[in-house]
Amino acid sequence: MGFGQAISAGFSKYINFRDRASRSEYWFWILFYTLGAIATGIIDLALGIQVTSGVFGLIMIVPNISVAIRRLHDRDYSGWWYLLVFIPLIGWLILFIWFCLKGTDGPNRFGPDPLADLAIPGAARAA
Protein backbone atom coordinates (compact mmCIF):
# COMPACT_ATOMS: atom_id res chain seq x y z
CA MET A 1 0.00 0.00 0.00
CA GLY A 2 1.33 3.39 -0.98
CA PHE A 3 1.32 6.70 0.89
CA GLY A 4 -1.78 8.08 -0.84
CA GLN A 5 -3.70 4.84 -0.43
CA ALA A 6 -2.85 4.72 3.28
CA ILE A 7 -4.06 8.29 3.85
CA SER A 8 -7.24 7.60 1.89
CA ALA A 9 -7.84 4.40 3.87
CA GLY A 10 -7.15 6.19 7.16
CA PHE A 11 -9.81 8.81 6.50
CA SER A 12 -12.34 6.50 4.84
CA LYS A 13 -12.07 3.98 7.69
CA TYR A 14 -11.68 6.51 10.51
CA ILE A 15 -14.48 4.95 12.58
CA ASN A 16 -13.76 1.37 11.53
CA PHE A 17 -12.43 -0.46 14.58
CA ARG A 18 -13.14 -3.96 13.21
CA ASP A 19 -10.91 -4.65 10.21
CA ARG A 20 -7.15 -4.97 9.73
CA ALA A 21 -4.43 -2.50 8.70
CA SER A 22 -1.15 -3.60 7.15
CA ARG A 23 2.21 -2.34 8.37
CA SER A 24 2.56 -0.06 5.37
CA GLU A 25 -0.88 1.44 5.95
CA TYR A 26 -0.08 2.11 9.62
CA TRP A 27 3.40 3.56 9.11
CA PHE A 28 2.38 5.72 6.14
CA TRP A 29 -0.45 7.04 8.32
CA ILE A 30 2.05 7.83 11.10
CA LEU A 31 4.27 9.61 8.54
CA PHE A 32 1.28 11.67 7.38
CA TYR A 33 0.37 12.53 10.96
CA THR A 34 3.95 13.53 11.78
CA LEU A 35 4.26 15.72 8.70
CA GLY A 36 0.90 17.33 9.53
CA ALA A 37 1.97 17.95 13.14
CA ILE A 38 5.21 19.57 11.97
CA ALA A 39 3.39 21.74 9.43
CA THR A 40 0.78 22.90 11.94
CA GLY A 41 3.52 23.53 14.50
CA ILE A 42 5.34 25.77 12.02
CA ILE A 43 2.09 27.63 11.28
CA ASP A 44 1.51 28.09 15.01
CA LEU A 45 5.05 29.48 15.45
CA ALA A 46 4.46 31.94 12.63
CA LEU A 47 1.12 33.04 14.11
CA GLY A 48 2.40 33.13 17.68
CA ILE A 49 -0.56 31.10 18.98
CA GLN A 50 -1.28 27.40 19.16
CA VAL A 51 -4.47 26.99 17.22
CA THR A 52 -3.81 24.90 14.13
CA SER A 53 -1.84 22.19 15.92
CA GLY A 54 -4.60 21.82 18.53
CA VAL A 55 -7.30 21.58 15.88
CA PHE A 56 -5.19 19.12 13.88
CA GLY A 57 -4.65 16.98 16.99
CA LEU A 58 -8.36 16.91 17.78
CA ILE A 59 -9.29 16.02 14.20
CA MET A 60 -6.72 13.22 14.09
CA ILE A 61 -7.32 11.54 17.47
CA VAL A 62 -10.07 9.14 16.32
CA PRO A 63 -8.38 8.14 13.03
CA ASN A 64 -5.09 7.55 14.90
CA ILE A 65 -6.75 5.25 17.41
CA SER A 66 -8.68 3.50 14.65
CA VAL A 67 -5.63 2.70 12.52
CA ALA A 68 -3.69 1.55 15.60
CA ILE A 69 -6.48 -0.83 16.62
CA ARG A 70 -6.77 -2.16 13.08
CA ARG A 71 -2.97 -2.69 13.11
CA LEU A 72 -3.32 -4.75 16.30
CA HIS A 73 -6.06 -6.74 14.57
CA ASP A 74 -3.64 -7.53 11.74
CA ARG A 75 -1.40 -9.18 14.35
CA ASP A 76 -4.52 -11.04 15.63
CA TYR A 77 -4.57 -9.09 18.91
CA SER A 78 -7.66 -7.52 20.42
CA GLY A 79 -7.97 -3.76 20.09
CA TRP A 80 -8.14 -3.56 23.87
CA TRP A 81 -4.35 -4.04 23.88
CA TYR A 82 -4.18 -0.43 22.69
CA LEU A 83 -4.80 0.56 26.32
CA LEU A 84 -1.10 -0.20 26.84
CA VAL A 85 -0.50 3.41 25.75
CA PHE A 86 -1.46 4.38 29.30
CA ILE A 87 1.58 2.53 30.68
CA PRO A 88 4.49 4.92 30.10
CA LEU A 89 7.51 3.57 28.27
CA ILE A 90 6.85 -0.18 28.73
CA GLY A 91 3.40 -0.08 27.13
CA TRP A 92 4.62 2.18 24.33
CA LEU A 93 7.58 -0.10 23.67
CA ILE A 94 5.40 -3.21 23.49
CA LEU A 95 2.99 -1.52 21.07
CA PHE A 96 5.87 -0.20 18.96
CA ILE A 97 7.29 -3.71 18.61
CA TRP A 98 3.89 -5.16 17.72
CA PHE A 99 3.29 -2.40 15.15
CA CYS A 100 6.65 -3.21 13.53
CA LEU A 101 6.06 -6.96 13.27
CA LYS A 102 4.48 -8.61 10.26
CA GLY A 103 0.74 -9.29 10.43
CA THR A 104 -0.73 -12.77 10.29
CA ASP A 105 -0.76 -14.34 6.84
CA GLY A 106 -4.19 -15.03 5.44
CA PRO A 107 -7.46 -14.37 7.18
CA ASN A 108 -7.73 -14.19 10.95
CA ARG A 109 -10.65 -13.54 13.33
CA PHE A 110 -10.68 -9.86 12.35
CA GLY A 111 -11.04 -10.38 8.62
CA PRO A 112 -9.11 -11.15 5.44
CA ASP A 113 -5.46 -10.29 4.92
CA PRO A 114 -5.33 -6.59 3.92
CA LEU A 115 -2.51 -7.32 1.48
CA ALA A 116 -4.07 -10.38 -0.11
CA ASP A 117 -5.58 -8.39 -2.97
CA LEU A 118 -2.31 -6.48 -3.47
CA ALA A 119 -0.07 -9.54 -3.62
CA ILE A 120 1.40 -10.69 -6.90
CA PRO A 121 1.01 -14.45 -7.36
CA GLY A 122 4.26 -16.20 -6.51
CA ALA A 123 5.79 -13.12 -4.83
CA ALA A 124 6.68 -12.93 -1.15
CA ARG A 125 4.62 -10.69 1.11
CA ALA A 126 6.59 -7.44 1.49
CA ALA A 127 4.70 -5.51 4.14
Overview of the molecule:
The chain is an all-alpha fold. It has one domain (3-100). The chain is 54% helix and 0% strand. It is built from 4 helices and no strands. The protein has helices spanning 3-12, 23-47, 52-74, 90-100.
Key attributes of the depicted protein:
single chain; 127 residues; mainly alpha; 4 helices; 54% helix; globular
Largest sheet features: none
* Helical/strand content category: mainly alpha
By DSSP (H or I, 4+ residues per run), the number of helices equals 4
* Cα distance spanning the termini: 8 Å
Mean pLDDT: 90
- Name the overall outline: globular
Task: Give the helix proportion (percent range).
Answer: 40-55%
Helix-strand pattern: HHHH
- How many beta-strand segments? 0
Number of domains: 1
* Fraction of residues in β-strands: under 5%
Radius of gyration: 16 Å
State the low-pLDDT regions, or none.
none
How does the SSE layout of this entry go?
Layout: H1 3-12, H2 23-47, H3 52-74, H4 90-100
Helix pairs in contact: 1-2, 2-3
Structure summary:
This protein is an all-alpha fold. The chain contains four helices and no strands.
